Structures are given as C-alpha cells and as structure tokens.
Amino acid sequence: MSSSSRASAADLPIYELESALLARLRAGNRLILQAPTGSGKSTQVPQMLLDGGLLENENGARRVVVLQPRRLPARMLAARVARERHARLGDAVGYRIRLENVTSRATRIEFVTEGILLRQMLGDPTLAGIGAILFDEFHERHLYGDITLARALEIQETTRPDLRLVVMSATLETSVLEKYLAPGCTTLASAGRAFPVAIEYLPRPAPFDRVPAWELAAEELTRLARSEPDGDALIFMPGAYEISRTIGEIRNSSLGKDWLALPLHGELPPEEQDAAVARYPGRRKAVVATNVAETSLTIDGVRIVIDSGLARTARFDPYRGINTLLIEKISRASADQRAGRAGRTAPGRCLRLWTEAEHFDRPAQELPEVKRLDLAEVVLTLKASGVENVHAFRWLEPPEGRSLDRAETLLRDLGALDRVTGAITALGRRMLAFPVHPRYSRMLLAAHDADCVRPVALIAALTQGRNLFTRASDKATEAAREDFLGNETESDFFLLLRAFKFAENANFDPAKCRRLGIHALGARQTAALFEQFLRIADDEFGSSENAEKNAPAAGDKIRRCILAGFSDQLARRLDAGTLRCALVGGRKGVLARESVVQRAPLLVAAEVREIQQRGDELNTLLTLATAVEEAWLRELFPADFSEMVEAFYDTTQRRVLARRATKFRDLVLAEKLSDDAPLDAAARLLANEVIAGRCPLKNWDAAVEQWIARVNGLRHFMSELALPAIGADDRRALIEQLCYGARGYKEIKERAVWPTVRAWLSPQAQAWIEQYAPERIELTTSRGPRRVKLIYPEAGDGSPPTLAARIQELYDVTGGLRIAAGRVPVVIQVLAPNQRPVQVTSDLANFWRESYPKIKGELQRKYPKHEWR
Asked: What span, in angstroms and rounded, lies between the C-alpha atoms of 74 and 42?
C-alpha cells in the first residue's frame, strides 16, 4: 500500500485497533472483531494483515480471503481496495463470486462470496494457499457463512493450526459466538467515530393499503430535503420493482430537476451499481436500494435515510417443499444498520416509515438463513466433505431437523445420495462440479447422457439471474411476443430458449429486445453464464458436446432432463376447467396463467413458490413448468411406482367402493372406481358408519347393550372368572365381524346380532353371565313370583345394577337383593304408584323400619285406592 493511501485510510476508525489487532493475531488464531458500519473494517483489516506480515511463513506468501454475504459488496469492496493499493483489479486484489473469477496467481487479498470458499475446501481441504479468513458482516448469518466457519474451524483444529480466523461485524451478539469459537478466541471492539443520527417515526401507522411505500417515501424526501440543505439521501425499498417506482415518484416530484435518483440492487449491471455509489459534485442524489446497502458498501455523503422497514425475504418451508419470497418487516437490528448509514461523515437523520410503538413489535434480530432456506446444496457439499451425519455437524445454530431430512430426501431422489446409507454417490460427486443447485447439476449430467448439454446448460444459465422477460408490457409488445414465441405447448423453458436466441441473434440490442419485452442486459448476462457452464461441461465431459451446436436436440430429450432434476415437484392437473394441481408430497398448487403447458395432464414445476396476492392472501404458484410423460417416470424412477387399492365409503350410495390408484411416490397419477373393495376394508368402513350412528343395526338394541354391560360388570364382581372385557375396541371388533362379507348398508341393516355377540364368550362364560349377572331377578309378591328386570350400568366399572319396582311389589321382600353369589347388593328404586321413586336403597329392611312409616301416611292420602300395609 502506498504511503499516500495509507495516510488517507488512517483516518478511518478501524486504525485505532490496528496494533491490538495484529498483536492478538500473532498471539492467537481466532478473533472476533466488533466495529461499527463505516469504520473501515471490510477494506482495511485485510490490508493490515497483508502489510503487517501475518500472511508470510516458511512456505511463502499466502493470501487473505474475505467472505462477503453478497456478490455486489464483494465486487465493489475488491475494486475499492485495488484502487487504494494502486493495483489493477484481479492482480494483487481480486474477487470471486459464483460464475465470475477476477483473480490471478498474484492475488493476495481476495473477496469471495461464501459458497466459493466452501467449494474450495473440497478440492483443497488444507487451504494451503490461504493464511487468514475474514468473515465479514457475520451478523447477517448467511447460510454459507455459518457452514464455512464450521469447516474452517475443523481444518484449523486438524491440518492447519496456523490458519487465522477473524469474525467481523458491526452488530453482533458475541456471547454465543465466543462460546462457539472457544478456546483461544478473543474479542476486540471499537466504538468507532460515527456521528449522531436523529431517529424519526411516523406519527401514525403508514396507510400502505392506500398510499404505496414509494409514494410516501418520495413525499417524505421532499419534506426532509427542505430542512436538510446538504447531503445525499438513501432510501431502502424491498425490491427492484419498488425501487423503480420510487425513482419514478422522485423524478416526477419537485425534486426531479435538482436531485439525481439512482437505483442500487444486485440485479443491476456493474456500471449502474458503480454509478449509485459515485460522487456528483454540485448535485444531490437519492440512492434507492435494497438491503444490499445496509452493510459493507460505503455510500459517501448520505445525510438522510428513509427506511420503508421492508425487505423481500427468502424462506423455504420444509414441510411443503415450497420456496417463498415474501415482503416482510425487517428486524430492529437491521433498522439500526440502515439508520447508521446517515451518520458516516456528519450528523444525519433517519425517518422510519412506521410508528415508534410499531418498532418494538418487530423482532430483535433476523432469523439465520440456516433456519429458513433450502439446505440441499449445503448438505451435498457437507456429504462430499466427509460429514456422514449432517444432524450431528458442528452447527453454530442447528437447523430444524425437518429441513435436513427434506434436503437428504431430495438428494436421494436426485441420485446424489445412496437411498439406504445416505452416503454421497459417484453421481453426487460429479454434480458438485457445477456451481448451481443440485437439481440443475443433475439435469446437466442427464443431458450428457442424452446428448443435449447445450440447451440444458442454457436452461440452467437462464434460471440463475433475472427473469428474461420484462415484468409488464403494453399490448403491442404482447402481440409481438405472441407472434414470435407462440405455438409452444411443451415447456415454459422453451419460450425462454427462443427468447434468448432472438436476443442473441439481435446481438443483445436493447431496442430490438424491447419490442418483444426481453431484458437485453439479462440475456447478455445469461450468455456469459451459458459459456461458463459449457466450459465446465467440457472439463467434465470432454469437448465432444460441441457437436451438438449444429444439431438441435429433440424437445422430449430436454424435457426428460428437466424431469431428472425436478421429479419431486411433479404435478398432476386436477381438472380441465381450472389450473389447480396436486403435487408430490401431498401439496396443492395452481399453475401460472402464463404457462404454456396448460393442456398437459402431467408436468414438473421448476419453481413452487408461495406468493402474496392482494392483501394477505397467499397462493402456491407453479411456474417454469414442463410437460412430462408417465413412461419417462417409469423409465427414470421405476422403484417409485406403486399400485394401491383404497377402499372408501360413498355416502350417496351408502356403499364401500374401491379406488384402484397408480401412484408415483405419494402422488396419484390415475385411478379407477369399482364395487369390489376388499372385504376387510369394507367391514372396517361400514363399522365406522355404524358406530357413528349413520348406519344403525336394527337388531343391535338395548338388550345387546345390557348384555355387554352384564359381562363388563361381572368382570369386576367376580374377577376370578377371568372374563374377557368388551371395551370400545372390542365393540368395534364385534361390529366389524357383523359387517364382514358386506359392502353396503342394505346388507347389514337387518343382520342377526345375537349369535356374533354371544360368541364373544365361551359357553361356560355365557352360563356364568346368566347365573351370576342375570337379566332379571325374582320377587315374591302377594300375587305370586314376579321376575323384574335389572339395569346394569353401561360404564361397566363395577357399580351394582338397579331394580325399579312399585312399593306394593316389595311388601314381601324384607331382606336385600343380591347377585354374583351374594357379593353385590342390588340398588332398589322404590316407586310410588305414579312410578316415581320415593326411595333408593340397597337395604330394604332398613327402609321398612325407618323410612316407610314416615311416608306411608302421605302416600295413603294421595293414593287411597292402592293397598297399604
């Protein structure tokens, strides 16, 4: 670094820690560095390590790798450090992001996105050329940052004890991280020299349902600009669409003539990103950015921050296998990061487009990506690194077990993992050669076998960036697009292939592409990715694939390759009148209206996303669909087919029918109804209806219920008899026996019940029931013997039975009545002539002695015609 550059950089607050930082890294190899945004840690710490000699050892010069969560900061930080060192980007200072490598053998400071280093660890598990790794903006808790830190610790503890690891952040809860990095980890903190930022809130909740965020932001910028005569503005919006609308509002406002409004987000070309952070002397600017501007990037001169409080957040639902990208409220920590951008060079103001009361309802921190994203690519990388049990991996915060299981299931479906052992297969290792999601690497391997690498590589490239088609177009554009791209019915990808070919033939001319609503820049970026994929394919397969260039592959070959990558997102149209679909995994979704495969009964969707509709309504949308054939499924996945016979009760016919289904995994592909349901299943389903009371058995009457109550009662009265119980499950079993052989209610409605019910007990047990728990008991009356019915409690809990008799029938009964060999007294309801009980007792002798004399007179007066003794 030149003396002039170092003198300029020395003004940055991070240089207050330079001596302490270098001393601690000479004494140990793990450090947590906490320094505020704008302190210079991202650009200066790697230079401190290089200039301080910490990257030299007996094996020669090594490089420092700075991990960045996002591609845009990685590129821009590398460019800034290269300028500071008066070096050409790609020489001493360079960067590597997915599908872009601007480094050389001379590179000593390398900014990379997190997945790059994790893949490098596979090829070089000792990281021989690396002396230090800096994990920048670690508080954002990106998925690959967590994984790479864990793998770096393993490498440091085994083969590279000299490897230095520094975890850096502006806002970081260090307690958990200190414990994770122990032993030997120290923490170094800088208060920085940030200027105060006045935080302002709206006086009442923003009416975003009536006034869009971009309109409100433009209005507030106009107001703040009057009271803040100096400095630029930074406005945070959730995505590119909201950014473009905000810029439009600013340009159409009173600020339009004096202010320069510029976008900043990851999909912009490098020159437009650079324009957003450049200085424009004599003119104020408003940079409208996504959360990419929260950290790392330096935008000098910002004095005003307007924060919508929103961000588009990617999540993955492991229970449904659905990717979501919804606009959500940011956390309080993210809001603080955003506010800090206004206090870099002078006091600033931050207006939050929500109320102060609403602020404290927001989460304190963002949820780490490891808990909300698809883990398939990470799991495959870990398996390739020798991690057999990903659940037991050294997670800083372990993901949900279901997410890991879902990732492993997908990788098994793709053939990347052994279905039995879960170990990585030879196919899985080959898939790692391609820096894309395992789905697309699997497609590319299938394409090699089918001699269609070029179109499949182009499809993979088309899915890595922005949508090739514009978000909205006028009727003329739609008509031109329809004329050129119409008549496609096999795959939405084929439309993209045609659109790309048009853009390529037009030499990516923006005017020509605009006529069809095609992003010329997006197509140009796709072309670069396409060529890189082809180079990787040539390295993996050999250069013979170039023969395809003049021999276009048949559409069915390409569609089979797409199926190889997305079999778990197979969908079947539910009806011809709507776009509703059933998917593998028990999910439901709706095919996008613009899809060209609306006549296909079977399809695979490359994207299954839950999106926000009007208001809070959510819809699971299937996009980038491709029609497939059942025969291809049987050829590629023969073990995943099954034939199933399912019985079900038809409430209209009151019969059990059979549904014979052909399934791919758990998705029904075809089904046929018949009247020959298996008798066991029919009996079970008919029994359900009987028990629910919807199909009553005429002959299962009160007498049957009382017999069951007698059995259950006697089990308690005389346990030595060891009678079997008749509980709820046994009752169901009896009813199923009664229903066996039938498939409809008419067949069972009047079936005889007693033979089946009595057969539950042996003849001896039946005799004991009659002897010890009789249905009736004999009373001696003035008119002779009379058999009176006993009522046994249906609970069957050992409570005694009850007898109800008029008082005149009991005159000659002076003692107690008992059953079960005299062990159980019968409860007697003594009835008046009106059949209402006047006494309930088990001791008639006491009744006649104590109670009867007191009530006799009153009963005589009421009922003088009855006999009274």
From this structure: 10
The C-alpha atoms of residue 251 and residue 245 are separated, in whole angstroms, by 10
Are the C-beta atoms of residues 768 and 760 closer than 8 Å to each other?
Answer: no
Residue 454: both structure tokens together: 């070029």
Cα three-residue angle 437-440-443, rounded to 5 degrees: 150
Q: pLDDT (tens digit, 9 = 90+) per residue, 575-589?
A: 888 999 999 988 889
Name the percent of the chain in helix, strand, coil, to the closest 5: 40, 25, 35
Report whether 295 contacts 37 (CB < 8 A): yes
Give how far the C-alpha of residue 500 lies from the chain's centroid of Cα atoms, to the nearest Å.
32
What's the DSSP call for residue 843?
-
3-state secondary structure of 753: coil
In a 10 Å sphere around its CB, with 0-12 CB exposed, 13-18 middle and 19+ buried, how is residue 818 labelled?
Answer: middle
Q: Beta strand 827-831 with 802-806: parallel, antiparallel or unpaired?
A: parallel
- DSSP bridge partners of 102: 95
The span from the CA of 301 to the CA of 232, in Å, is: 6
Tell how strand 348-352 and strand 302-307 pair up.
Answer: parallel
Rounded Cα distance between 720 and 713, Å, is 13
The structure's pTM equals: 0.69
pLDDT tens, position by position, 268-308: 887 888 888 888 888 999 999 998 777 667 788 899 999 99
SS3 labels along 730-791: HHHHHHHHHHCCCCEHHHHCCCCCHHHHHCCCCHHHHHHHHHHCCCEEEEEECCEEEEEEEE
d(CA 555, CA 459): 13
DSSP string, 150-202: HHHHHHHHHT-TT-EEEEEESS--HHHHHHHH-SSEEEEE----PPPEEEEE-
User: What's the distance, CA 257 to chain centroid?
Assistant: 46
Q: Which two tokens stand for residue 626?
A: 């491709």
| Cβ-Cβ contacts under 8 Å for 281 (sequence gap 6 or more) | none
Per residue, the 3-state secondary structure of 648-683, as one string, reads: EEECCCCEEEEEEEEEECCEEEEEEEECCCCHHHHH
Question: Each residue of 475-497: pLDDT tens digit?
Answer: 777 777 777 777 788 999 999 99
What does residue 339 show for φ and ψ, rounded to 5 degrees?
Answer: -60, -35
Measure the CA–CA gap between 416 and 786, rounded to whole angstroms: 83
The dihedral over CA atoms of 102, 107, 109, 113, expressed in degrees to the nearest 10, equals 30
Rounded distance between C-alpha atoms, residue 525 and residue 529, angstroms? 7
Using CB atoms within 10 A of its CB, is residue 654 exposed (0-12), middle (13-18) or buried (19+)?
A: middle
Query: How many CB atoms lie under 10 A from the CB of residue 569?
Result: 25
Say if CB 464 and CB 528 are below 8 A apart: no
Contact 4, 184 (CB under 8 A): no
Q: How far is CA 194 from the centre of its chain?
A: 39
Compute, in degrees rounded to 10, the torsion defined by CA atoms 665, 666, 670, 674.
Answer: 120
| Distance from C-alpha of 428 to C-alpha of 415, rounded to nearest angstrom | 7
β-bridge partners, 94: 110
